Amino acid sequence: MFFGYMFVDLMSPLQSMIEAQRGWTPDVFGMYGSSEFILNVFGFLILAGIILDKMGVRFTGQLSASLMFIGACLKYYAVSDSFAGSGIETWLGSWWTSFPASAKLASLGFMIFGCGMEMAGITVSKAIAKWFEGKEMALAMGLEMAIARVGVFAIFSISPWLADMAPATVVRPVAFCTVLLLIGLLTFVIFSFMDRKLDKQLGLDSRGGGGSEEEFKVSDLKYILSSKVFWIIAFLCVLYYSAIFPFQRFATNMLESNLGVSAQTAADIFRWFPMGAAAITPFLGRYLDHKGKGATMLILGAILMIVCHLTFAFVLPEFPSKPVAYGSIVLLGISFSLVPAALWPSVPKIVETRYLGSAYSLIFWIQNIGLCLFPMLFGFALKYFNAGRTEGMPYDYTRPMLIFVACGVLAMLLGLWLKAEDRKKKYGLELPNIKK
Ligand SMILES: NCCCC[C@H](NC(=O)[C@@H](N)CCCCN)C(=O)O
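Above: query sequence and L54SNA5H SMILES. Below: predicted holo structure tokens.
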């Protein structure tokens, strides 16, 4: 997860450089960002959930880590100098000419990587639920997400530094993260041995099944799809995350434009966002394990996000102050701890373990639709509202940012609805995870 999250965001602080070196304008950059989710949206994630519930965490984990590595290799080739001037580049550049050939192949690589990354995400969640059932599950998930956030922090620091080394190039950070993904694949193989040992101790079969619960059947999906609370969680998830991950991709340039600073300085400010989240998420997970209050945490997280995005939209352009920028980013980090820390451990409370993988995959699927559309929508909004902008001028982010504010408002309303449903139907979303 650490290396995966690094790979996802390695281009984020390099928007200006990739525009200068490979001609990726903001709309191209936005579409490239969306490509991570395209195959998932067109059904791969549903299949991934079924594979996970049928084949178990070890097989699915190794398959997903392999896909991540293959996708990364393709993306590396797309931005490399050997691709520039090749026959493939000529052919890819001969159609849909407004979208550069390097962006087309990099997007294909990112699509394959994205399948592996999301499949790994659900696999890891199911593995944690298996290893920590009735124990410190939220803390374990919180730590996993904290490690992922440290990855984002690390890449926001390392990527511009690697890219800026003479001769400045976007290729170096891509190559670096591709090697890390190979190491990630090897670490999952090691985990698989440990997981097999756990199964032996628990008396489970080679796929981690065969305990007291029934085996998963594809028809079980109907139990998930007919649950109202499942849909509330899924829509809350898509709205909340659509205002976080797509924003993350544009945040460096937003700060660059609003504060009038360099890309490096903007990335230096923004990298504290995942760090804030990394520091707090495990504590909130622990709180949830011992005290509960999951639904309340979701509402609070959405409110904090609204405040932050309003600040980026209206306050920063008027008062381009670094303390205001840092303050809002730390606050957004707190929001980004509250929601994930409460959201993911809530899923095992509303569905049975045998179809937990499919429940996670359906939530990820709906979330991926948002993550796929929002960078495009935001990229187009940015271009539309900056129609008169000339090369080198800062972008105006005020009106595009309202897209993210609206997501926050809707997520907050869903959080309130979820809390009301929980009070009525007693899912235990406000109760601690640890059973004494
Ligand atoms: N075991 C993973 C729990 C979910 C963590 C969550 N990630 C997602 O929701 C992903 N579907 C989206 C990741 C987008 C970047 N690739 C998180 O909070 O990071």
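The domain at 2-197+219-425 is CATH 1.20.1250.20 (Growth Hormone; Chain: A;).
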